[in-house]
Amino acid sequence: MSLFGAFNISASGIDAAQTWINTTAGNIANANDVAPVSGKAYQAQTPVYTPTTSLPDGSGDGVAVAGIDLGDSTGIVESDPTSPLANSQGLVRVPDVSMGQQLVNLVQAQNDYQANTAALERAKTAYQAALTLGQ
Amino acid sequence: MIPPIAPLPPLPATPPAGGAAAADASGGTFSNAITQALDSVQQTQTTASTAEAQAAAGQGSVSDALIDATDASLATQVTVALTNKAVTAFTDVMNLQF
After folding, report:
1. Closest residue of chain A to B82, computed from CA coordinates
2. Helix and strand totals (H; E) in chain A
3. Phi and psi at residue A70, in whole multiples of 5°?
4. I need a labelling partner for B36 at 20 to 30 A (CA). Which of A59, A71, A93, B44 fits?
5. Which positions in chain B touch A18 (Cβ < 8 Å)?
6. What are the tens digits of pLDDT across the range B23-60?
7. A47-100, pLDDT tens digit by residue?
8. Size of interface A-B (CB pairs under 8 A)
9. Is B74 in contact with A14 (Cβ distance < 8 A)?
């Protein structure tokens, strides 16, 4: 751990929140995707977080994105005869992405990001307070 | 056939008492400490510069660059504060009145 350990921990949290924002933005961007019934619908992406413990005493030193969890590829089969991807019955496969859920995730990811930034800011203030000792 | 055993290397000469050994035992000089601290600060600033260049080029994250810059800034402040304290102590000793 470096001299200012809290910085690295908060940095990992900010990176994790950034990943969440990015995957949520991707889900929203692909919410209107259309796939043929024979293919796979867009799979909603959710990051999976895991703590990192590289310190000898086992205490945590941040968070890491262990992977991206992919949602259901079945999606929803709906009728859209005008789509060029529709089959002979006029059916297409659309992703099962709830726009409301994604927007809630976005708010949570933003709060996550800002919370990590606030923690970093407080740590910086505390470190600077140590510099004024003895003055 | 058993290979012959190589002779033992000669023992290193024992260092003389006092002299260089005494200087090492004192734990380094003030200039060494300052030099090491400044090298460490220089490294944090190099890290910050690299992160900023990567962020500007769109290859790194902006948050990482800003955090590295804050890290370098605080490291510099710590080094300056400690150096000032040490110089103050030295000046106090120099101003001893008998």
Report:
1. A131
2. 2, 5
3. -100, 135
4. A59
5. 61, 63
6. 454 567 888 888 888 998 999 999 999 999 999 998 98
7. 999 998 877 776 778 999 999 999 888 889 999 889 898 888 999 999 989 999
8. 34
9. no
